Amino acid sequence: MTEQPSPAAALVYSDELSQHVLNPNHPMRPIRLRYMHELMAASELLNAPSLLQAEPRMASRDEILLSHDPDYVDAVRAIGSGGIVPNMYEFGIGSGDNPPRPGMYDSTALVVGGTLVATQLVRDGKVPVAFSPAGGVHHHAMFNRASGFGVFNDAAIAIQKLVDDGLRVAYVDIDCHHGDGVQAAFYKTDRVLTISLHESGQWLFPGSGFVEETGSGIGEGYSVNVPLAPYTQDELWLRTFDSTVPPLVEAYAPDLLFIQLGIDTHFRDPLTHLQITTQGFTAAVTRLLELGRVNDGTVAVGGGGYDMGAVARAWTMGLASMAGFELPDSVPESFDAVAGLDYFEDRPGPVALDEDVAEEVERFAVRTVEAVKSTIFGRHGL
Questions:
Q1: Fewer CB within 10 Å, N- or C-terminus of the chain?
Q2: In this predicted model, what pLDDT tens digit does every residue of 10-55 receive, in sequence order?
């Protein structure tokens, strides 16, 4: 009997993760996860022998408390159960980004549990990389308040558990928005290297993520921010990535790599201004997977992404890269959850920038790389 090969990657998912609605007009639509999963199925990716599939679980209150204030956690639970919390605005819950809703606690605890399942699969040596696509979008959540669609910061919780177990972790966030909640959680420690490559807070929420935010105390030099100008496209984005992320991760030599794969960098995303394609995104994922192979594994989570077609295609392409699965060029005709998708890659991509705009965008990136190298690299012997 032929021995089955070990799986190359794991996907942690259940349709339950896609069922809640923040409010009817909210740009964050969890149904995007179901569309993604349907595209993975239509592409035969879910049948790949190299892919292990796992179910999420509910995170316990004690696990959530690894990175959140008890009063805040209790307020979220009360709101999710229909209770009246007069001071909910102090906890960042109200109209706008984080509206109160039934089931708020349970749906977010399930996201956290999914990321913890992915982390444990890697820790146990079941797979070298595990992907929890429902996670990551909570990267703005703070210790005692919700922020930017984030309620319980699954990435910070999972990383804190790893740190408590004695591991050193590198966290790389390629979401269009600065990963401020994860940065804040580990700003004063050298046990976690956080790197966020994002559209500058000069133009985009949360208004932070500048190169000067480098950590404090023993954490000085372990918070790294790589802000970019609006309209940055693939070639420059990847060149900036290559100039900063690999050398820092390699110098830090973490026990485990944790990557946040937001696709709100996409040129059709309605909330942001970078102009990345699905193939540019996948090129960055491939680079991150290469970095992860030199340590004890990689945990991947999703993140932002508000164009439904970009989310479905990019995260399918990302998981295919993790599993070593070759996707077809064309989106299967049987996939009809999102209309108008012909190819996995963007054909065509964004229009070329006017020369003067392209030059200014380039100058901004060059200044950012120079600033990161002058303020951070020396701390890591580079």
A1: N
A2: 999 999 999 998 888 899 999 999 999 999 999 999 999 999 999 9
The first and second tokens of residue 279, run together, are: 């193939």
**pLDDT digit string, tens, across residues 135-158:** 999 999 999 999 999 999 999 999
**Mean pLDDT of the chain, nearest integer:** 96
* List of domains in the chain: 9-380 (3.40.800.20)
Query: What backbone phi and psi angles, to 5 degrees, belong to 263?
Result: -115, 20
pLDDT of residue 3: 57
- Kindly name the residue from 140, 177, 178, 266 that is annotated as catalytic: 140
Burial of 337 (0-12, 13-18, 19+ CB in 10 A): middle
Q: Is the pLDDT of residue 356 over 60?
A: yes
What string of DSSP letters covers 231-295? T-BHHHHHHHHHHHHHHHHHHH--SEEEEE---TTBTT-SS---BB-HHHHHHHHHHHHHHHTTT
Residue 326's CB is within 10 A of a number of other CB atoms, namely 9
Query: What gap in Å lies between CA 110 and CA 282, rounded to an integer?
Result: 27
Q: Is 380 annotated in the active site?
A: no
Average pLDDT over residues 176-198: 98
Q: How many CB atoms lie within 10 A of CB 71?
A: 11
- pLDDT at position 1: 44
Q: Are 186 and 222 in contact (CB under 8 A)?
A: yes
Count helices and strands (H / E) in the chain: 10, 8
Distance CA 288, CA 369 (A): 19
Partnered with residue 197 across adjacent β-strands are 226
Measure the CA–CA gap between 186 and 215, rounded to whole angstroms.
8
Whole-angstrom distance, CA of residue 104 vs CA of residue 125: 32
Q: Quick check: pTM over 0.90?
A: yes
